[in-house]
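Q: How do we represent a protein-ligand complex in a form that can be generated token by token?
A: Start from the inputs.
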Amino acid sequence: MKINLIEKSRIDDVDFTNLTFGKIFTDHMFISEYKNGKWSSGEIRPYKNISVSPSARVLHYGQAIFEGMKCFKSEDDDLFLFRPDENFKRFNKSSQRLAIPEIDEKIFFNGLNKLLKIDSEWIKKGFGNALYIRPFVYASEPSINASEANEYTFLIICSPSKSYYGDMEISVKIEEKYSRAAKGGVGYAKAAGNYAAAFYPTKLAIEQGFQQIIWTDSNNHNAIEEAGTMNLFFVIGNKLITSPTSDSILDGITRKSIIELAKFYGIDVYEREITIDEIIKEHKSGNLKEIFGSGTAVVVLPIKSFGHRDQLYTLNSEKNSISSFLKEKLNNIQYNISNDFENWKYKIN
Ligand code: COI
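Then emit the structure tokens for the protein with 2-OXO-4-methylpentanoic acid bound:
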């Protein structure tokens, strides 16, 4: 692998106590290109603009997918990824759906390991601090023929981050007009276009005082699917409920980790359809105790209220909430405070 390092780091210009998600990037990036049926072994380069042809297919047809991962620094200055094999698998699953050639495991992990070691100073210790890692691939071939490309570019860029919404508890709007994904579509993939399609309805929700949307099934708008950047969990009585993944719901890695941890700690977990009617009914009877989101960027995020039509339903804050219990267990693994669980820790060597 070719390595081309920067002359002077930008790190001293960064205020690590005041980070807005996704605005600042580390000194380097990893890049590999796909041409003539194969990926190059890749190169570490200074983080800087890349040149893209005006006819690159991605700009016209949106053939692009991405992943979100985090690297954590332990008290002993060791670097850990959390279940990166799952991100790698999902990366290629998303690629497959968008007719993008799969990336080799070796290229992905060699690039990632090297990059994290080179930019390790950018990863700060302490709960909430992490390096958000964004691997992505796009169709770079210059051609506006509406079919899959023959040339692609794969990059990994990294951004120091705090948690996505800070310590805020958010309010979400249940969406009944727009849909994020439909059966047979690309909802399960981390396709760039899934996010673009969510921006307009989310903008409307933000204007109405919410931070995110809860997406419902595209047929009846009654079964709950996921929120903008998160999977969703509901605590009803003492049961933890989440919608089963499907072709319209992202198979979240934090989501599946929460399920496994909750089961391990004896919490009753159900992966089953959950509807708006049910959560409104349970809210009215006082049984709906918590709603929270899970995702790489947010980790675990409590939701304090949800809006449905003209009604706002607010949840009482729980002292010993299931969400804070599970978040702590997860964080303890991520920051290497507790023992490993099911081989989830991946140490950068
Ligand atoms: C992640 O949690 O990694 C996401 O995909 C959210 C991102 C779109 C900000």
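Residues 68, 195, 229, 295-297 surround 2-OXO-4-methylpentanoic acid (CB under 6 Å). The chain has two domains: 2-162, 170-334.
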